[in-house]
Amino acid sequence: MRERELCIQVAWACRILAMQGQDDLTLGHVSARGSDGRIYIKRKGLGLSEVGSGDVLAMDLECNKLSGDGAVHLEAVLHAEVYRGRPDVGAIVHTHPVYATAMGATDERLEFVNHDSVLFRDGVGIYDAEADLVLGPGNARKVMSALGGRRAVLMCNHGILVADKTIPWVVYAALTLERAVYVQSIAKSLGNILPIPQEKIPEIFLHKYQDKFTDEYWQYLMREAVRKGYADDVSNED
Predict the structure, then answer these.
(1) Can you give the residue range of the structural domain that contains 15?
(2) How many domains does the chain have?
(3) Is the dihedral of CA 179, 185, 191, 193 positive or negative?
(4) Which residues contact 19 (CB under 8 A, 6 or more apart)?
(5) How many helices (H) and strands (E) does the chain have?
(6) What is the DSSP string of 140-167?
(7) Among 163, 215, 216, 231, which residue's CB has the most CB atoms within a 10 Å radius?
(8) H-run or E-run covering 125
(9) Residue 32 belongs to a domain with what CATH number?
(10) Neighbours of 123 (CB within 10 A)
(11) Residue 28 — φ and ψ, nearest 5°?
(12) d(CA 220, CA 39)
């Protein structure tokens, strides 16, 4: 994917996450790894709902800005260290969704309550070394270690980090994690949880989590963003 197209995808990702309630003032960031080895990431100072393609910076794995206007996010090192440690990862989301952030402040762990949770069949990592911002490579590497080969990590008292192969996949995974935690919180309030049997998990995963479905969901989410007014100037270069 060319640089311009990747920047547009990052901007769409920001708008969709905002539409789905994962905005938090000017906090939170989305990035993608380019074929040129650069990291394309939302710039500091804008809310997710405001980001256009012209607000996406290029940086290297040392978090040095290579192109674009504006400043690099303070926690950009999170992205750099995950890309460094996971060559399979093509896109990353770090946000503060309400329910997943709340779970990260408890000893509760994600269970197989519904199909959403099956996306995380390998579990969700737990980063509990520090509740503060992740500002240096030392703690960023600890986040990477907690993530391991999984899709997501709960950052205790902080938020989530989700890593996946493409922008459509990472957005879908971030939205699905929040929904899975939300459904689990409701289920626990209604009675004892009766999880999906472990032996059924691989079959459900195979049936439900396919590239063709994720592409379909991505197209729907972009259409929904247009309908709800979240897509204005998403392709701007100003």
Answers:
(1) 3-227
(2) 1
(3) positive
(4) 49, 221, 224, 225, 228, 230
(5) 8, 8
(6) HHHHHHHHTTSSEEEETTTEEEEEESSH
(7) 163
(8) strand 125-127
(9) 3.40.225.10
(10) 13
(11) 90, 145
(12) 26
- Tens of pLDDT along the chain (238 residues)? 688 999 999 999 999 999 999 999 999 999 999 999 999 999 999 999 999 999 999 999 999 999 999 999 999 999 999 999 999 999 999 999 999 999 999 999 999 999 999 999 999 999 999 899 999 999 999 999 999 999 999 999 999 999 999 999 999 999 999 999 999 999 999 999 999 999 999 999 999 999 999 999 999 999 999 999 999 989 876 4
**Tokens 């709960």, located at residue:** 154
Q: How many whole angstroms separate alpha carbon 161 and alpha carbon 112?
A: 20
Per the listing, tokens 């969709």 go with 16
State the CB neighbour count (10 A cutoff) for residue 183.
16
Contact of 30 with 10, CB cutoff 8 Å: yes
Within a domain: 237:
no
